[in-house]
């Protein structure tokens, strides 16, 4: 695997024979917020690109389409409202409408209204959608596990820290 495909060590790694003037440049020193932010964005972008490419190539699905299918598959009765899918994926209503529209065109979900509650539009998984999400989940989960295995023993610490940041930034309504 070429080096650019692997989540590389932080830039500015100091060769062992050089002592930096700035102690923050030493391995293990607390990173500046700008570097932490850059790493979060960079890792997200790179993993997202890799997984999206694999899903397109192997399953004719975008990452967003896969995530929508997975959320619908995990919902009670394999049925979710557009609002539930939008909330789960962090998409706008227009974004989820477009994503679900593509899934409908592919025959992976159907839109329907439930008897007794005509206000809410639901997306329901089809048999083809169930098969596709199962196959794509294996590709997605194996690739993500492979990439995140690079965290090694730090995985629990990183996950906990990111969960705290996520909780603190969750939109309150």
Automatic annotation (TrEMBL):
Which organism does this record belong to?
A: Geodermatophilus dictyosporus
Q: Please state every residue range assigned to the domain named HTH marR-type.
A: 33-167
GO molecular-function term, one example from the UniProt record: DNA-binding transcription factor activity
Q: Classify the source by domain of life.
A: Bacteria
Q: Name one GO biological process term.
A: response to stress
Sorted alphabetically, the keyword list is: DNA-binding
Query: Disordered: where is this region?
Result: 1-30
Name used for this protein in its record: DNA-binding transcriptional regulator, MarR family
Q: Which Pfam families match?
A: MarR_2
Q: Name the InterPro entries on file.
A: HTH_MarR-typ, MarR/SlyA-like, WH-like_DNA-bd_sf, WH_DNA-bd_sf
């Amino acid at each position: 695997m070429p080096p650019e495909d692997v989540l590389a060590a932080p830039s500015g790694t100091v060769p062992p024979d050089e002592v930096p003037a700035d102690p923050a440049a030493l391995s293990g020193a607390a990173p500046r917020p700008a570097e932490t932010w850059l790493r979060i964005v960079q890792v997200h972008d790179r993993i997202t690109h890799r997984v999206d490419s694999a899903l397109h190539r192997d399953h004719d699905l975008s990452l967003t389409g896969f995530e929508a299918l997975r959320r619908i598959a995990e919902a009670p009765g394999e049925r979710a409202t557009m609002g539930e899918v939008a909330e789960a994926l962090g998409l706008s209503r227009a974004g989820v409408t477009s994503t679900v529209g593509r899934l409908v065109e592919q025959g992976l979900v159907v839109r329907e209204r439930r008897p007794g509650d005509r206000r809410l539009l639901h997306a329901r998984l089809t048999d083809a959608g169930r098969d596709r999400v199962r196959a794509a989940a294996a590709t997605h989960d194996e690739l993500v596990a492979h990439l995140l295995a690079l965290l090694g023993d730090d995985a629990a610490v990183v996950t906990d820290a990111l969960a705290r940041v996520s909780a603190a930034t969750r939109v309150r309504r």
